[in-house]
Write a structure and sequence with these properties.
Elements (H helix, E strand, L loop, with lengths): L6 E3 L2 E3 L3 E5 L6 H12 L2 E4 L6 H8 L6 H16 L6 E4 L5 H10 L4 E6 L2 H10 L10 H7 L9 E5 L4 H11 L4
Parallel strand pairs: 3-5, 3-6, 4-5, 6-7
Antiparallel strand pairs: 1-2
Length: about 180
């Protein structure tokens, strides 16, 4: 018997939770992802750390990434999840479009998504208040235009971000039926 956290998937126990905390910049992916990983006893990684330097340079210069820029990064996100240890992993990754989530699922088919959802005004305020992040607030509109919310047939849930970090984390854990 293992002490690994369990997550249910349609009544089936999953020993190794693989969770992608997704959403636009400023939604709290890293913060909530880290908290969720702690609650699961899983490893956390920020997907931004998997971007090649050229992608980071483009975003820092205020240039939106193209799909050509994203495909290798998304494959790396999926591989990182799939290769995680027995405790599982929570990874923060924008995963804005359905095809991006499919690319992650190609590598890690049991992954589940937690979409962090907030109003443009709330997101702008959060982005304006943070310091030292490479993603400028000027790219928020581009991300919002690209965002395709999780569809009912995708493996995951949406959680509103207009409450405390503790409440958001608890809502995500509850919706995923993490035990």
């Amino acid at each position: 018997m293992t002490n690994a956290p369990r997550m249910t998937d349609g009544g089936r126990s999953v020993e190794r939770p693989l969770v992608v905390v997704m959403g636009v910049s400023g939604s709290g992916k890293s913060t909530i992802g880290h908290r969720l990983a702690e609650s699961l006893g899983a490893e956390f990684i920020d997907g931004d750390a998997l971007h090649p330097p050229a992608n980071v340079a483009k975003m820092a210069a205020g240039i939106p990434l193209t799909d050509e820029d994203r495909w290798p990064w998304l494959a790396a996100v999926g591989r990182t999840l799939a290769d995680s240890g027995p405790a599982g992993m929570v990874i923060a990754c924008s995963a804005l479009r359905r095809v991006y989530r499919a690319a992650i699922l190609d590598q890690a088919p049991t992954a589940r998504f937690v979409e962090l959802d907030g109003s443009p005004e709330l997101l702008r305020g959060r982005m304006g208040a943070r310091e030292g992040h490479f993603m400028p607030p000027s790219l928020l509109d581009s991300q919002l235009a690209t965002l395709e919310p999780l569809a009912p047939d995708e493996p995951g849930i949406r959680v509103g971000i207009d409450r405390s970090e503790e409440e958001i984390t608890a809502a995500a854990a509850s919706a995923l039926r993490i035990r």
